[in-house]
Design goal:
353 residues; alpha+beta; Aminopeptidase; 12 helices; 14 strands; 29% strand
Length: 353
């Protein structure tokens, strides 16, 4: 497909040369995120079965001037959509100029129509143009610079939350372990699956975490907080262009009593500093949620996020757990035995994207 002299093509992410070129563009762009990278696209595709597509705008010089990563998320319960990027908090159009934005937008809508997909969701990036709905204020982003040392980091936490953190730091039964081995993945999944069950949310397939960790290589790891040998809190983190990005994290029921979530993120800040990272990006939370309030109490200032959607029939799929239609299901899910939730959950969650 052509727009003026610009070509838009679907990259073959199995081709090392095309994959390397796309990665170089993302890593060299100020607005690039891990969720624009081929590693995210392929990791999510392998982990959930949702097909990945990478649209690229190519200048007459042959250079990439824009990218749009997409997942075709399909679910019998929630419908289907093209999502940039699936299972991510960011994504959207990544381009050098308005011409590339227009060309990629047109190609995206053409792809949706060709496949009979009635909606498209872009999580971040510039406005796609006319005919797209803007969604502002439903989610908040949280990020701040990493402090110069551990003491300065501690003082950056507001007093009330700092007192809770000090209790965890004084608990000599707690220890930290960081790694990328199978045992770290298994411990993370045990903790994370219990955490989301307690929130009334289906857990993602274990393979998703395994594939994303493998795809990102040294740009991802798992941090565990253990009480003796028992994992209590765990987080899978991405590292991107100087940013620490904790992504899938949680704690078991005892985490609140032991303050291990506070300890986990504090130690992750120190780990990021040791890796040469400059910013701690706490990701997004829903406006008005307990999670958003917790991040604010940790010293992070919320910033409203903007998303865009397009629909052939004017309707947008509803995967918001705060929707009234889901409240009874969430309360029932919290009561499921963990083995049952872990067996059924992945079949549902792979369609939430």
């Amino acid at each position: 497909m052509k727009a003026g002299e610009m070509l838009v093509t679907a990259l073959d992410l199995a081709d090392p040369a095309q994959r390397t070129a796309a990665d170089a563009f993302v890593l060299g762009h100020r607005q690039g995120t891990p969720f624009h990278r081929p590693a995210w696209l392929t990791g999510v595709e392998r982990g959930t079965g949702n097909r990945a597509n990478m649209l690229a705008a190519i200048a007459p010089s042959g250079q990439i001037v824009g990218l749009l990563p997409l997942h075709h998320v399909k679910s019998a319960l929630f419908g289907q959509a093209l999502v940039s990027s699936g299972f991510a908090v960011d994504g959207g159009l990544l381009a050098n100029d308005p011409a590339a934005v227009s060309a990629l937008t047109a190609a995206c809508l053409g792809l949706a129509r060709d496949r009979g997909i009635v909606s498209v969701e872009l999580r971040g990036g510039p406005a796609p143009g006319e005919g797209w709905a803007l969604h502002e204020g439903s989610h908040l982003g949280f990020a701040r610079p990493i402090a110069a040392d551990d003491e300065a980091e501690l003082l950056a936490v507001p007093r009330k939350h700092r007192a809770e953190l000090r209790k965890a730091l004084a608990n000599d039964t707690l220890r930290i372990e960081i790694g990328r081995e199978v045992r770290h993945l298994k411990a993370h999944y045990r903790v994370y699956s219990e955490s989301v069950r307690n929130l009334g949310t289906p857990v993602f397939p274990a393979r998703l975490f395994r594939e994303v960790l493998a795809a990102f290589g040294e740009d991802a790891d798992i941090l565990l907080v253990l009480e003796g040998e028992r994992p209590v809190s765990a987080v899978l983190t991405l590292y991107h262009q100087g940013r620490v990005m904790p992504f899938w994290g949680g704690g078991i029921a005892d985490a609140r009593r032991l303050r291990t979530n506070e300890l986990m993120y504090y130690r992750l800040m120190g780990h990021g500093r040791a890796r040469g990272m400059r910013v701690f990006d706490f990701g997004r939370s829903k406006t008005g949620s307990g999670q958003a309030a917790w991040k604010k109490s940790f010293g992070f200032v919320p910033v409203p996020l903007s998303y865009h959607s397009w629909s052939m029939n004017g309707e947008r799929r509803d995967i918001n757990p705060n929707s009234p239609q889901y409240q009874r299901r969430i309360e029932l899910w919290k009561k499921l035995p963990l083995p049952v939730a872990n067996w059924v959950g992945p079949f549902i969650a792979r369609g939430l994207g």
